[in-house]
Amino acid sequence: MVNSAKLEIRKNKILRAAEHVFGKKGFQDATISEIAKKAKISEASIYEYFSTKEKLLFTIPTQYASDLFDLIEFHLKLIRGSGNKLRSIIYLFISSYEERPDNAAIIMLLLKQNKKFLDTQGHLKIKKALRVITETIDEGIKTGEFREDINVYLVRSIIIGTIEHLVTNWLMTGKPEKLIDLVDPLVDTVLEGIQSKKGTTSPLALIKAPLIENRQEE
C-alpha cells in the first residue's frame, strides 16, 4: 500500500510537469499524454489524482499561492514600516513570477479571464496572498506613514494591475530581461503618492527593505 507521503510526492511531480507543459503549449494544445511523459508516469496515474485536464490546470496555482503567502508572512515578521513591507511584498510577488515563468503564463495568460477558475481553491489562495497588500496599506494609514485620504482599494488595484501588466508584457515580449529590476521604481512611485509628510520624513520610510531572494525549490 502506497503511503500518503509517496502519494503527495507523485501528485507534486504531476503538477510540476503539467505546469511546464501548460505554460509552454497552452491549455488547448497540451495533452495528458505529454504531461505523463514529462512526469515519467502513466496517463492512468494522472487520472487517479485529476479527473479532467481542466481540474489539473486549476490545481496548479493552489500550492504556488499557498507557498507564496507563507513566504510573505515570514518576511513581514522581520520588517518594520509599512513602506518597507510593501516593497518586500511586491518584490516577492514579482520574483516568484520571474523564477517560475511557466506558472506565470498559466496564471496571467490562461486563468486570469477564466470564470470557472474564480470558484477554485487556487483562486481563493491567490486572493489571500493579495490581501496582505490591503492590510499593509491599512496599517500604514493607522500609523500615519500613509495619508489618511487615500483610497485603499484604488491603491491596491494600481499595484496589482501594474504587476499583472508588467508580468504579461514580460511573458509576451521577454522585456525587461529581469522583472525584479522594476520593483524599486514601482514601489518608489507608489510611495511617493501615498506617503504622508510624517511618512516621508521618517527614517524608517527612507530605508529600503533588503530584497531577500526567494529560493523556492524546483
Count of all domains? 2
The total count of helices amounts to 11
Looking at the overall shape, the CATH architecture of the largest domain is: Orthogonal Bundle
Unreliable stretches covering 5 or more consecutive residues: 201-218
Cα distance spanning the termini: 28 Å
* Proportion of helical residues: over 70%
**C-alpha geometry:** elongated
Which strand-content bin applies to the residues? under 5%
Report the order of strands and helices.
HHHHHHHHHHH
Characterization of the model:
With 218 residues, this protein is mainly α. It has two domains: 1-51, Arc Repressor Mutant, subunit A; 58-206, Orthogonal Bundle (Tetracycline Repressor, domain 2), CATH 1.10.357.10. It has helices spanning 4-29, 32-39, 43-49, 53-76, 82-99, 101-111, 121-143, 152-173, 183-194, 197-201, 203-206. Helix 1 crosses helix 4 (53-76), helix 1 (4-29) crosses helix 6 and helix 4 runs parallel beside helix 7 (121-143). It is elongated, with a radius of gyration of 19 Å. 33% of the residues are buried.
Topology of this structure?
Layout: H1 4-29, H2 32-39, H3 43-49, H4 53-76, H5 82-99, H6 101-111, H7 121-143, H8 152-173, H9 183-194, H10 197-201, H11 203-206
Task: Record keyword descriptors for this entry.
mainly alpha; 2 domains; Tetracycline Repressor, domain 2; disordered C terminus; Arc Repressor Mutant, subunit A; 0% strand; single chain; 218 residues; elongated
